[in-house]
């Protein structure tokens, strides 16, 4: 498990280690799962890049937000920062804001964009299948928009509040955006019963093998649902009218991602059927979620975010 962080630090390709983590999910005879252990990082008030702290969201559900501010934080009279509500990936089944590579990613994002990041610890499947994560996302947006938090209130510009996710977190951002018509930068994870070419060719993919992708969806979807359920394949299952009011979106993808064909279909559906304005950045090199580990891919993502936000500010 430490190989992920070690490989990323050394500049090597960490994808085999991450792919191995997905394959280590064990489904028990009673339907429960045993999750592989991954390195966790506590929040930090002393990080040289971005400081962080955890705040409870719903104590009865055990959910929380990890907030990140650039270090040093902007002075009180400085212009406020855009706010990014971030949803981690992991197929709705694994990880949290404390997972080492997601914690590091949010630190880097807060500094590079710059922005105030709120990373949501949402309920995981299969203990809480979809739409539980979407419900938690809606609760997080409501918390942010009404927040008197000592970081959010003085430093966050809630008129520039974005929802964003990595992989399955991008799926959560999309459905949260539908519920509340928030701004939506996203790298969305979708699927369907019929294989796309990039999915069919991914049996040996080191980052997201086909077997792992299938397992994650089987654990996350509502009981009895197939891969053409709207949570998994909105382009097939949802009517275009459901997209009414969805504002301008950023969708990013990498050419080496098994989900790239599905993402391209998703973008076409948003634009052609829903009339949504989409900024698509789909031609970068890299594997699934490589922005978490490869500095060049992270730089491309953060640049796209800055450009997307600047265009919104100038609108």
Automatic annotation (TrEMBL):
One of its GO terms (molecular function) is hydrolase activity. It comes from the Eukaryota. It holds the Pfam family Abhydrolase_3. Keywords: Hydrolase. Residues 84-289 form the Alpha/beta hydrolase fold-3 domain. Belongs to the 'GDXG' lipolytic enzyme family. PANTHER family: ARYLACETAMIDE DEACETYLASE (PTHR23024), OS08G0547800 PROTEIN (PTHR23024:SF393). This is Alpha/beta hydrolase fold-3 domain-containing protein.
């Amino acid at each position: 498990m430490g190989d992920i962080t070690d490989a990323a630090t050394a500049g090597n390709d960490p994808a085999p280690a991450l792919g191995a983590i997905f394959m280590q999910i064990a489904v028990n005879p009673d339907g429960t799962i045993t999750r592989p252990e991954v390195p966790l990082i506590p929040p930090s008030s002393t990080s040289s890049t971005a400081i962080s702290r955890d705040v409870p969201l719903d104590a009865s559900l055990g959910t929380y937000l990890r907030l990140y501010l650039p270090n040093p934080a902007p002075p009180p009279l400085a212009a406020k920062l855009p706010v990014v509500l971030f949803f981690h990936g992991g197929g709705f089944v694994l990880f949290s804001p404390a997972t080492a590579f997601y914690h590091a990613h949010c630190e880097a994002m807060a500094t590079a964009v710059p922005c105030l990041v709120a990373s949501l610890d949402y309920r995981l499947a299969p203990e809480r299948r979809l739409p539980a994560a979407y419900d938690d996302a809606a609760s997080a947006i409501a918390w942010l928009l009404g927040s008197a938090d000592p970081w959010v209130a003085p430093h966050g510009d809630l008129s520039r509040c974005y929802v964003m996710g990595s992989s399955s977190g991008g799926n959560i951002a999309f459905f949260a955006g539908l519920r509340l018509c928030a701004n939506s930068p996203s790298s969305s994870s979708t699927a369907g019963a019929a294989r796309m070419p990039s999915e069919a060719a991914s049996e040996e993919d080191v980052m997201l093998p086909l077997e792992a992708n299938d397992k994650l969806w089987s654990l996350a979807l509502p009981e009895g649902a197939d891969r053409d359920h709207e949570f998994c394949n909105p382009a097939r299952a949802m009517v275009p009218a459901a997209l009414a009011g969805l504002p301008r979106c950023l969708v990013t993808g990498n050419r080496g991602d098994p989900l790239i064909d599905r993402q391209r279909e998703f973008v076409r559906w948003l634009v052609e059927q829903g009339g949504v304005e989409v900024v698509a950045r789909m031609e970068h090199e890299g594997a699934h979620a490589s922005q978490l580990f490869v500095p060049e891919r992270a730089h491309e993502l953060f640049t796209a975010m800055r450009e997307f936000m600047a265009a919104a500010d100038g609108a």
